[in-house]
Every structure is written in structure tokens, then in C-alpha cells.
Amino acid sequence: MSLRRYAVRRLALGLVQVLAVVTVVFLLVQALPGDAAVALAGDNPDPRRIEQIRAAMGLDRPPLERFGEWVGGLARGDFGVSLISGRPVVEFLHDGLGPTLVLAVLALVLLIPLSVLLGVLAALREGGPVDRVVTTVTVGLHSIPEFALAVVLIAVFGVQLGWLPPTAVGADLLAQPAVLVLPLVVLVARPLCSISRLVRAGMIDALASDHVRHALRLGIGVTRVRFAHALPSALAPAVQQVARTTDWLLGGVIVVEAVFVIPGLGTILVDAVAGRDLPVVQGLAVVFAVTTVVVNLVADLLVFRLAPRSVAIA
Amino acid sequence: MHSLNRRGFLGLTAGLSLAALAGCGTAEPTTAASTPRTGGRLRAAFAGGGAKEVLDPHLANLFVEAARSKALYDKLADLGPDVSAQPRLAEKWEPDATLTRWRITLRQATFHNGQPVRADDVLASYARILDPARAFRAKSSLALIDLPNSRAVDERTVEFALKRPFVEFPNVLAAFGAYIVPAGTEDFTTPVGSGPFSFTSFEPGRSVLLKRYDGYWEGAPHLDELEFVIANEESARANALLGGQVEYAHDLTPTTARGHAAGDRMAIHRAPNSAVQAFAMKLDRPPFDNRDLREAMFLLADRPQLVESVLAGSGQVGNDLFGKGYQHYADDVPQRTRDLDKAKFLIKRAGAEGLTVKLDTSTAAAGMVEAATVFADQVKGSGLTVEVVTGNKDSYWSDTLKNGSLSSFRSGAMPIETHIAQRLLSGSGTNVTKWARPEFDALYDKAVSTVDDKQRGEVYREMQRSLHAEGGYLMWGFADWIVGTAPNVGGISTAPANTLDWARFDKVWLG
């Protein structure tokens, strides 16, 4: 099967997956206690008022009918409107996607070169002091959960030393890049370990493989063998991990968004679920599902390019 | 997706921030914030509802929305420090002898677009709130206005017709969300009000920027600009304040306040009697349909311990009555204290020995789960067992209105009359304790048709005495509302949250 046909088939399958995700999300939100009217009424839960809110929101119609209507709208590219504010869901996605994309892209720009560099360095000095230091530091970072690292960094660099802004509250992320430093450190810390470890392992395997040794015997320069022959096949396993990390970042890392006050997709999701704002939750589910499908497809195609034999396209 | 345990996280943040600060001995000296100064931009951090926030003041629901509405708009009346209605856009109100027709004279005020605030704007605003097809929060409060029979007498005089005699009508004018908008307004993307600040820009879930309105009827604010920013986590609000990113952090925890009270990096402002903390017993079902058992519960609560442990001392003990410090509060009722022996006796007499009662609670409001846990501990050894059940926070209030027999309860400030009307009459919409007594309803009707303040106060006291003796609310404490500011911020009031002077930025200045 050609690469193109494979990609088309994967995309078609992805469409089914997105629909399945949206349906499951709909059922799950339905299963949650309370609806948008109850959540909005809050500590003033007068049943008459809740009924009025329900009627005003159109929640008095059968859930299946509302869901069908929403899916129909989706087919036309219409994500519907928020139950609570009446704003189009697309606006929410647009507002949240900006900060999430800024964080994700910058995190990946830092993460990928850094983890490859560390992985390769460690592999080339396998067992040496550099390898040990890199291993110790990355494994150490990996064992600290995001929120703990964030709290420590804020307390030390944001509050006590005052070197960096402790939060991004009210800030324009790109105009005030200083607010991004601490969140990016937190986001990069853990994936840095997993990816650099994979690169290291892949590189060690590759350096010991037949084709690399053969290339060396042919008299090709060591540098060229390392980076043109060994590295690509060493990267293949790491690509899958980068894909998972990308997916995680594009989903809006809720902890980091909450601690640093970055109003991205994760924050919108938390608010929408708490408010039982079903159209917004479903809109986000579509975005997250599409992201996952696309990112994984791209990763597979990339792996195929890097190391054709490692992926079975059949 | 990673989940964040808020409580553990907050504790950790607080602890680490304290640890970080402990090593930091010298900070800049506290600036005297005692003399008002004009100018500057104050940034105020509030928790928000993310992107679901709206600028329509009639839809206001969250604290940040209430604070913003107050900056942009006016109500006819608002609640003073003793939570009684004070004239605002209404200069004065005069009822007729039947208490069913009220003549309101408006102040000479102008909207931000230069148009005067007219009687028609008032009627149109109330008509919008009362629209049967909508569900605005102030609707139930305004429901007793007979709008078709109300009229604009002239540009600055409105005559309201009421469906029944109601001497507390000013409380209605001060209802949450009953703001006056220019007649015909439906689009609030660039809101126009008559409040002390006018609109500059809005990014939902992030910030709202306002600027001074020089034509404000009560005098222009000190600040040039006011920016509301959103930070949902309390730790983030505190950190932003410590880091100099905001000058005002709304709603801090007692733990944060305790940690920073002695330092000079933030000023802590406490507004006493802002939120009542309680347990609600339902009277219409076992086991609390038994009066002895209710009294036993009242006597089992160790209130000072609850205030000390749950509110970290930032509060006062309650006496099972709503509205300590408010107008008409029955402060002559003796304070209840813990009496284990009498409680044991009453439990025995009620035949409830060995009984296990479920106490429903949730994290819907700060301190509720902690209070439930502490109380369950205080009940031990009485013959009764209280089992704490933590429910879903998003549907908590609606769930506990219907289900269970004992639940955590919390309420913000409102006039005692409003508390009674909403929660303690047979037809009340949010009657959690299911207190329904014809003679009590009759007393309420008597109170709201008694013109004389003193006589009316006596009726309210009588009602409170019966609630104290037999009611279902175990109101153990009143929490302070805690706000942190930069040391150079002046003019912060300590009136209870939700009243006029709370989050009132036109009176605030940067020193």
C-alpha cells in the first residue's frame, strides 16, 4: 500500500474516532450529576429558577435531539454556542488555542533539540561521567510532578528572589515573554527525561547495529556515520514519545495553566465541565480528538521516513 | 490529563511561599496609604468562570462579575455596612399609606455616553430582568413589582406598583444583579452604565480594563484605570500580589492571611460577618423532625473550636441565627455553648442513641468539608454518629436542597428579611431546612407591612427567637472575607462581602 493511501485510510479512521470520542463525551457529561442550569443556579437552587434557566437554555428538550442538532451543525462546521454565555464555541476554542499553542510550540522548540542533544551526548559517552550526570539530572526531574516543580520555582524565583514573574496573570504571552520562562521550564522538565532516555537507548543500539558498523568499515567518517546513519534510526522510537508529548501539550496542561494563570484550552475545559456547558465541552473534545489523530499520523509517517523497516504499513 | 488536588496543592503552595518568605528579612518599607491620591492603574485579581464570563450585569453571578458590574453600573439602592438598603441612583423613596405604591426620585446622573439616567431606563431595566422568557438572577426578588401598573411620572421620578404591601421594598432595589442599564440595551460588548468607571476593553477569562468616569454622580474615582484580571487559584492570586503583578487579590484563605499578616509585603483586609457557616437539618423528615435531637446537635457544636480550626481564627462564633451585626439581628438571644451532658440526655430522650446520621458536604464552598469533619469528631461520645459524605461540588446546592437530612451550608451577606423570604417561608424557593410554619409566615407578613422601624424590628426578633429555639440551621460561625493588597493601596473597606463598600474601587487609591 502506498504511503498516501495509508494516510487517507488513517484519516478516515480518525474521523470515526473523533465521532466516537464526541459521543462518549456527550454520554459522560450527561451522566454527571446536575446540568448547566443546576450549575449556574449555584447556591441559589430555587427549583422554579432552575426550570426557567433550563427553558432559557433549551435544556428542556430531549438530550438526543440536542446532540443530533449539535452533530448536524458540526458537519457544517458550526460548533454551536455556549449554554452559559451564549458566545459561539468557536470563540472559546480560538481564545484558548492561542495560549496553548504558544506554550506547546515553544516547549517543543526547546524540548526536541535539547533532548536529542542530551541523548546523543549520553550515548556517545555511554557509562562515562557525562552520561551519568545527564541520567541523574533527567531522571531526577522526571520524578518531580509538574505542580510540585511549579510551586517550588514560583516560591524561589517568582516570590523570594523576584527574578521572574510568578504568574502570567493578565499578561499578553508574546509581548511579555518573561512570564513564559517558568511555565516552559515546568513543561519541558519531565518529557526531557523520557525523550532523551529514548534517544540515548536508540543511539546506543544504532551504534552497535550492523549497518552502522558496515558503514564504518566502508571508511565513512565517524561524524557522518553517527549523524547521518545512526541518528535517524535512533530517533524513530523517540518520535512516538514526542508525539505523545505534543498531544499532551496541545490538550492544555491544566496544572500548569492553573498555577501560572494561563487561560488556555485546559482552563476552558475545567470551567466548561464545572458549568456543564456541554457544547463547549464537546467542541473541546473534537479539538483534542482531532489533535490526537493528526499528531499520531504525522508521527507514524515521520517514523516511516526515518526508519522504513520499523513501521509495517500494510 | 493530569488532575490537580486543589487542597493539597494550596497547602503546599502556602507552606512553600511562607518558607520562601521566612528567609527574606528586609523588604521595602511600607508606604503610608493613608492619604488619598489621584491616578494610577489598580490591577485586581479575582477568581473567574473562565471564558463563560459575561459583561451583562443582569447575568452577573460570580464575585468578579458583581465587582465589575458595580464599577460600570449602579443600582437604585445597595446594602450598607449593616446590610440595610441605602439609596444609590435613587435619591429617595416614598411609599404610600398602603405600602403598595412607591415613588422613587432618581439622582441627577448620566450614563457614560452622556445621556441622563431617566425613569424609562429604570423601568426598561426591570422589564428586561422580569422578562418571562429569561432567567436573570434578580428576577425572583423583583417579582413582586406589578410592572404594567408602574409608570414614569417624569424624567426623574418612577412610581412602582407592588403586588402586595412591602415595607422592605428598598431591599428589592438593592437585589443582586438589579442594575440600571440604558433602555433597550441588549448588546453588552461595549457596556455603557452610570457607574464610576467606563469601559475600555474585555478579554473573556483574562481581563477587563476600565477607566475613570469623571462625570460620576458621587464624584470621580481616585484611580485613572482599573483592571480586573482572572486567577482562579488562590495561590496564584497571592503569588501575583507578592510578585507585584497585581495590587489587589480578592478572596484569600485564612492560612495565607495568617502567614502574611505580620509581613510587610502585603496588607491583609478582613471584612467580618461576610459569610455564615452552618449545618442545615431538615425538619420534614427523620431524624431531625425531632426537636430534642435538633437541640442536641446545637449543644454538641464546639463553636470556638470550629472557628479556630476551620476558619483559622478568621471569624466569629455564630448563635444559630443569620446576620450577625446586620440590621434587625437578635443579639439579645443568649449565646449557645457546648453542653455534652445535656446533648446526651436529649439524644437519649429522642430515642436516637446509636443512630448514624449522614452529613452531606462538598468543596462547593471553602471550609465546608473541614467543618463537617471537625463537627463529626465533636459529636463522638454523644451516642450519635455523624458520617461525612462528600458529594459533587457543581450540583451540591441543588442536591442538598432536596436530598438527605443534614448538610453543610454557607451563605453570603443579605438582609435578614431576604434570608427569611428566600429560605424560611412555606413557599420559599431555597428552603433547605424545610422550616414551614403558618404562624412564622404570618409574622413575616406582619413584619413587611409594619412601617415603624422599631416595631418591625421587634417582629423580626420574635421570628429569630423561634428559629433559635427550634430551627434547623446550626449556624456555628461567621467567616471574615479576606482580601490582600499591596501595602500602598488605601481606601479598602471592611464592610461584608456583597455589600456596597465591598470591592468598591471608586473609593480606593494607590499611595
From TrEMBL, chain A:
Annotated membrane topology: Multi-pass membrane protein
One example of a Gene Ontology biological process annotation: transmembrane transport
The keyword Transmembrane is annotated on this UniProt entry: yes
Cross-referenced PROSITE patterns: ABC_TM1
Primary residence: membrane
Q: Where in the cell is it found?
A: Cell membrane
Instruction: Tell me where in this chain the ABC transmembrane type-1 domain is found.
Output: 97-299
Query: Which residue spans traverse the membrane?
Result: 101-124, 144-163, 175-193, 248-270, 282-304
Q: Which UniProt keywords apply?
A: Cell membrane, Membrane, Transmembrane, Transmembrane helix, Transport
Q: Is Cell wall biogenesis/degradation there in the keyword field?
A: no
Any one GO CC term of this protein is: plasma membrane
Q: Which family does it belong to?
A: Belongs to the binding-protein-dependent transport system permease family.
Name it.
Peptide/nickel transport system permease protein
Organism listed in the record: Saccharothrix carnea
Automatic annotation (TrEMBL), chain B:
**Signal sequence, renumbered to the chain:** 1-22
Keywords of this protein's UniProt record, alphabetized? Signal
Q: Please report a single Pfam family linked to this protein.
A: SBP_bac_5
Q: Where is the Solute-binding protein family domain?
A: 86-414
Under InterPro entries, the record lists:
Peptide/Ni-bd, SBP_5, SBP_5_dom, TAT_signal
Give any Gene Ontology cellular component.
Answer: ATP-binding cassette (ABC) transporter complex
Supply the PANTHER family for this chain: MONOACYL PHOSPHATIDYLINOSITOL TETRAMANNOSIDE-BINDING PROTEIN LPQW-RELATED, PERIPLASMIC BINDING COMPONENT OF ABC TRANSPORTER
Q: What is this protein called?
A: Peptide/nickel transport system substrate-binding protein
Q: Which organism is it from?
A: Saccharothrix carnea
